[in-house]
Structure formats: structure tokens, C-alpha cells
Amino acid sequence: MNNATKPSNDVSRHPSRTALVLGGGGSTGNAWLIGVIAGLYDAGLDVTDADLIIGTSAGATAAAQLTGASPADLLADALVAVAPRSAGPAGSGGRRAQGGPVTDHLEGRRRIIAAAEDAADMRRRTGAVALDLATTSDPSTQSRWRATVASRLPSQHWPARRVFITAVNADTGAPVVFDRHSGVDLVDAVAASCASGFAYGVDGGRYIDGGYRSNAENADLAAGYERVLVLSPFGGRALTPVEWGQHLASQVDALRAGGSRVETIFPESSADHLFGASAMDVSLRPSAARAGYDQGRVRAERLTEFWR
């Protein structure tokens, strides 16, 4: 587990052309991400060929899915209507395993942020809460959650390309980035990145949602890449104070200051009802996927010149 730290972004050793950033956003966010990429693909732009894909929470699920299946097949799955259900971590792109509704989860985050001195303190406090919940949770939660995540992934193996999956060490609050060199199975990396409601154990370590690392996108990991495309189901919003520097806008400014060209795609305002408090409503996945698909089709022409 000592390898589960930030992988090297040394541009002299690694390709540094394009980076695709897939942000968190629950079940509907996952469907929207797939829709956007499928829309771009159908309009002639394949962004899954990025030199680096960064996935956080629901975006981690999407990253693993997109490296193992075609955008068309994933879109077809996302368009299948599913009845509402409960039970699965809040950031999972699926179901929630601990805690109450999404609104309660967000209120809990706000309380922790208000009490925290800085981002590191926030991560430590959040990890402590998750670890405390683990002492009273059903012992089968971990195995059930792993099985759920595994069922969503077309492949159980890390792809050869560079994929970063974000998480946070629940015991220390330290930011973590998994990749194929970390010694962690892809399923476990994604399950850890999606673990908002409890601390997910991997080889003796315990981890929580990658959105706690910096923000729902973690676009800072794309530093050194020439062109960065950020897909954010949350529209770049963050609950943390602006002065902490965790908002997507701050990270985009830093990337541009470092020489990167950056484009962002956010859900249209007409689709706001599909996200936020509704992010875990799986019955809204088809609507979110269609909304993303339409946006991808519209944005493809402009982004083609940028990406290529």
C-alpha cells in the first residue's frame, strides 16, 4: 500500500498530450458522464483515447467502465430504466451503503467543513466519522459493496493506459491516488473512491471517497498535460471555502497558469433537477444519460480542434 500515493506526472517520462477528468456526482452523474462521452463519440470525437484519465467517485466508476467497454454499449446500459432503490455509498454512481438520504449526507459534510481548520483537517475529521460508522455497520457491507462495484465494471483488470483513481486514507486523512502500479485491484480502487458512507478496507488500509481529496474533480492531477477536458456533474461546485483552493475554478486557473489548455463541460441548467439531492436516484439515470448525450453532440465540433 505504500505505492498508493500520487503517481508521477513527470512529463519527460510520460505522455503529456491529453487528460480526461471525470468528476464525481452519484448515480445520475455517472450516467451523465457516459452520455457526454457517447455523444462526443457519435459526433466523431473519441476522448477515451486520452493519455491520462482521472476518475473520482462516480467518475472513477466511469473511468473503469470506459476503458473496458465502448461508449455506445455503456450508454445503452445507462438508458435502461431502473426502479429507485437504497443501500450504497453516496458517491458511488450506484447505491448507498450507510447513512440516510443525500441531503443528510451533505449536511454532515457542511458541519465537518465548518469545524475544520483547513482541507487536511477536514479530511481527517471525515475519515474519523467514517471509521466510527464502521464500528457499528453490518460486517458484510464491505463484501457486498465490492460485489456491487465489480458487477458494474466490464473488466476487473487495470488497463495498460494511465488511469488515476482518487481516494483518501481514512486513518490519516492523506490524499491517495491509485493506478495500475499501486498493487491494488481495479475493483478495490474504484470501491474505495466511491466510499462516502463508510471506510472501505484495502490490504490493511481504509479509504473514503476520492471527492474528499480535493474536490469532486481533482483536476490538479492533470498538471503538465497540454490539453485537459474536465467533465463535472456537479458543475464545478464545492462546499469548501474558496480560500482552501479546492474549487474547480481554482484548479483550472492553476492548470492554465502552468501552460495547459483546459475545457470544461457542466450539465445544462435545465438538467439541474437530475443532480444534487437527486444524484442517487437510479430511476433518473436514463434522463441524465440523454442530457449528457445531447451535450456531447453539441460540443463535439468545438472540442475536436481542441482535443486533436
UniProtKB/TrEMBL annotation:
Gene3D superfamilies: Cytosolic phospholipase A2 catalytic domain (3.40.1090.10). Coiled coil: none annotated. Keywords: Hydrolase, Lipid degradation, Lipid metabolism. The keyword Lipid metabolism applies. SUPFAM superfamilies: FabD/lysophospholipase-like. A motif (DGA/G) lies at residues 209-211. The keyword Lipid metabolism applies. Residues 86-106 are annotated as: Disordered. A motif (GXSXG) lies at residues 55-59. Pfam families: Patatin. Signal peptide: none annotated. This is Patatin-like phospholipase family protein.
